Description:
By secondary structure, the protein is α+β, with helices and mostly antiparallel strands. The chain contains 18 helices and eleven strands. A four-stranded mixed sheet has the order 1-2-7-4, with helices on one face. α7 crosses α10 and α7 (about 155-170) packs across α13 (about 250-280).
Amino acid sequence: MFMVLKMRKKSKTNHSTINLPPGPWKLPIIGNMHQFLGSLHHRALRDLSKKHGPLMHLRLGEVSTIVISSPEPSILATKILSYGSTSIAFAPYGNYWRQLRKICSLELLCLKRVSSLIKRIASKAGSPVSLTEEVSSTISGIISRAAFGKKCKEQETFISVAKEAIEMGGGFNIADVFPSFQLLHLISGVRTKLERLHREADRIMENIINEHKAKAKTKAGEAARVEDFVVVLLKFQEHGDSEFSSTTDNIKAVILDIFSAGSETSATTVNWAMSEMIKHPRGMKAAQDEVREVLDRKGELHPPGPLLLPRECSESCVINGYEIPIKTKVLVNVWAKGRDPKYWSEPERFDPERFLDSSIDYKGTNWDYLPFGAGRRICTGIAFGLINVEPPLALFLYHFDWKLPSGMRHEELDMTEFFGVAVRRKHDLNLIPILCRCVEGIFPSLGWAWDRY
């Protein structure tokens, strides 16, 4: 009864005279939450936008939300897991965020990891392999070396925590849509689980940071240490801008950002790309022919994050004549943008060739294709993400032919999605690699790709 009275009071005082964008009818207390039952959230939002328009107002519990699903021009998990929203992804715009973005322009590569992946798959040629597991392990190893300078002792535990954090950070938890009802947080168990994940990640990162600090105090360690992310952030903490103070918790928040965002999105992109090509052999053959020709001579369908990270309006504004109040949550459905027939010909068809003669790129200047977001909050890891995706994918096509196990036909491949911050395959991608190019001499053949970065 208390909840009903409180929600009625809010509904009478909030937005009573504001010209909000159109949206579906809201139920008492839960608002529009019932319209996501049994559906993947990005698909449900797309279906609602078809009826109510590309700029749509929803109420998720007590949270007023604007959803953008057209190119026409913080949740509980972020507060706990990102150390009070101090990570690069969730920090509010300002001097602190600008400094973090500047630091995160650092690019650290590890080509040996990619080579090891190809050789490992080649050793299993002719037998089914879980490409999902192989890719995830390799990319996590690359990011671990970039972040820590070496393989972390508890890398697998840390990666597991980061993956859980991604699933919890997908939003739409009861604690996200009813932030003022603390009792619901307790009953749902969300806060307890998030705090457990936070403690585990914090313990591992604390050990890593202390180890880096100890090495920095010795002359031998100072001379030999690799410029990994922890080293860079510690240097900034010690010698950075006097107007901007960086704490150990800030460093931990950025490290968790790198793992939770970088590993899952890159692995998801590779897996969906391979899935689409296996399901469409003509596309696979064309890609293999082109890659092999280039190397011998020296994804609009599955954006890894279907919804850009939710943002909050720092001030009131007007879009297309509709008033957007301050503190309103804004969701951009990039998945829906990529499947809008108004802007794409046959949007549901896998057709990489549509980009061959197109000026559209992924850098945030084309509003109908925003895999990394746009504006000053565009993803800072674009270059690092491409490094994790393009070389492994190119080498998969160059060195191997691929087929499905157990005589499965390509049209039978299950393409079911699993929703989170990154929408990955619900089931692992299991394929049989057929070796058709020697795996020796990988480094020279890949030089052209690395020169791009």
